[in-house]
């Protein structure tokens, strides 16, 4: 058992934790980062191996040793999820992610009031806990800008200080300046998607991604090898925390990363302050860190789990939980999709960055009139390979053949042989509403390799509002597929109610301590030296991938900690 | 070739031949037919078993290997210019995986194969590898649809899905893992392997990508070692 003292302890060194390590270290604070997985390096990711990284999920948590359970509702027992869709190493999900780097729309930050204003309060499902954010897009814009420039994001502006620019996303919120790097090149699927979408009057564009389209900050540009989503980048062109913020944190001399560790408790004293954390080392040892500030930045399950595991007599319902909101409002993206195959050309979709290559934003957020439609909010639409990853194992596992073709045998072999190089998936990523009864709590029956109760998800996205949105989007996707000139267009089956990718919620932020867990800076209302930062604080989720918004929010929090909290510790709001 | 390699190759060839013997003669490479005849004349119970035990797979015994060889070949059948599971060495892939990365699935396969065997003997009065190709397809369809009788754990559908998954892995994973022999799976679908880069012209081409060479991990490793 070891005890260490430091200024700041960060639990989970991923998209948010890596930025905090660099920013707080640069401000002269001593920082210790606890990370469950290893710290890998670019050389570890060469060469390419679809079995290892896509199929066997090497960069994700092992679901047997680190189980997470799921049940659609409280009347059935939860079972361990077979695949865990998040990162398990220093850099977290930014190591394997598809790098989509969006700024949320202005109305994503006020989805509730936008809906009431435009369609009336009755448009919001009665059981939804949809809430506005305690910040506006304008508040966050400088931090989006900073994240894009510090990390390296490639894209084309569609709204520069209010001026709409064709070729970029004309639905995006106004940005103060262009992206730091030009948009990534479109591949054949992007060319087809671009033409098809324009034919339908939509506004397609090359998706903004945290991949270098050109050399930037001493890093080399993308080689378009295609081994992207699910893989670590073999040339370091993916702007993961591994190659951006961790070297910066190291250079401050104030940061220590401890890998192979499992934090199991945030310690508090009788005055209601956090005093630090306890964790198991890689050797099974039980260790303590005493810190002035505790920041939780693991994947969202572990924010809720840690707060609940850390309950004391003073905090009998878990830490930061006087509102009773910890663990509630779990959200996740669902990816309805259609497949399109072409008889007149090859598509070779395995080339180039694989995830959500080319997009249209016409059916996202409140970018279209929902009047008369049985749902609110929308989804981002893009062209991708079968499972955002483009190898043949991915296609064989994730692309159901068209109706009438079996999943095996000579006909299936011939389908793959002809269409693996001639397919594209057109995918929607839906903004599902928050509901208070979609929750994370502690599983009473399943424990992880450290003996801790597994996080248990109670969640089913198949609600009337969400099902109607999916059906609406599937029809749009089919339309795009046909407009692209596909010979065959068919739907992928919808899965069970299981959460998809990009989880949000569990430690909701807000303006009111009675209805939220943390304030806009991720600071606990109950324990001012305890911060929770990441998508777990999002009050609503947007149809966009969350990472850039996680990172912008993190820069905002880091700025508040360095420039305000450090001088005058206490509530920031 | 080491003695071990030779024994392993013999095991795999015999398992595949044993499977193909009844499953569909057209699928059996000509070079193997003599072996097949030889074995059919041997002791009927365990025709492939060598007294020394040296010709055992890394995981499968000979009967189970023959069943998996036949089963996976029906899932991805070979044809002229269309490599199938046998051509790709899917049996070899699964055999190695079950003794390595998938050791936790050994019981799943043992019980799944035993249940499959019992089902086939009851419904068709013979083991899977002795059924006609049409009968084998009926059995597989019954597994896929969950209609095959006698399955508890794994269920028929679980067993089908897992064998299908592993067949696809053996077809398309890098040859490093023991399947996708001579890039046969990648050649089937036109995937060029672990290419380090594509050019802007490649990206927007409407044509098949044919630029040689197809790249596997061991080629990458051995060429970089040669350079070193």
Write the layout of secondary structure elements.
The complex is a heterodimer of chains A (573) and B (228).
Chain A: E1 3-11, H1 17-26, E2 31-34, H2 50-55, E3 69-71, E4 79-80, H3 111-119, H4 137-152, E5 159-160, E6 163-164, H5 188-199, E7 204-206, H6 245-251, E8 255-258, E9 262-268, E10 274-280, E11 286-296, H7 300-309, E12 331-333, E13 337-341, E14 358-360, E15 379-384, H8 392-398, H9 410-419, E16 423-430, E17 439-447, E18 453-458, H10 464-483, E19 488-491, E20 501-504, E21 530-532, H11 547-565
Parallel strand pairs in A: 1-2, 1-11, 2-8, 3-18, 11-21
Antiparallel strand pairs in A: 3-4, 5-6, 7-14, 9-10, 10-11, 12-20, 13-16, 13-19, 14-15, 15-16, 17-18
Helix pairs in contact in A: 1-6, 1-11, 4-11, 5-10
Chain B: H1 3-23, H2 33-40, H3 62-75, H4 85-88, H5 90-98, H6 106-124, H7 133-144, H8 156-172, H9 184-189, H10 200-204, H11 217-227
Describe the structure.
The complex is a heterodimer of chains A (573) and B (228). By secondary structure, chain A is α+β, with helices and mostly antiparallel strands. Helices cover 22% and strands 18% of the residues of chain A. Chain A has 11 helices and 21 strands. Chain A has helices at 17-26, 50-55, 111-119, 137-152, 188-199, 245-251, 300-309, 392-398, 410-419, 464-483, 547-565, and strands at residues 3-11, 31-34, 69-71, 79-80, 159-160, 163-164, 204-206, 255-258, 262-268, 274-280, 286-296, 331-333, 337-341, 358-360, 379-384, 423-430, 439-447, 453-458, 488-491, 501-504, 530-532. In chain A, strands 1, 2, 8, 9, 10, 11 and 21 form a 7-stranded mixed β-sheet that branches. A 6-stranded antiparallel β-sheet of chain A has the order 7-14-15-16-13-19, covered by helices on one side. In chain A, strands 4-3-18-17 form a 4-stranded mixed β-sheet. Chain A is globular, with a radius of gyration of 23 Å. The mean pLDDT of chain A is 97. Chain B has 228 residues and is mainly alpha-helical. In chain B, 55% of the residues lie in helices and 0% in strands. Chain B contains 11 helices and no strands. The two termini of chain B are 26 Å apart. The model of chain B is unreliable at 20-54 and 223-228 (pLDDT under 50). At the A-B interface, helix 2, helix 8 and helix 9 of A face helix 7, helix 8, helix 9, helix 10 and helix 11 of B.
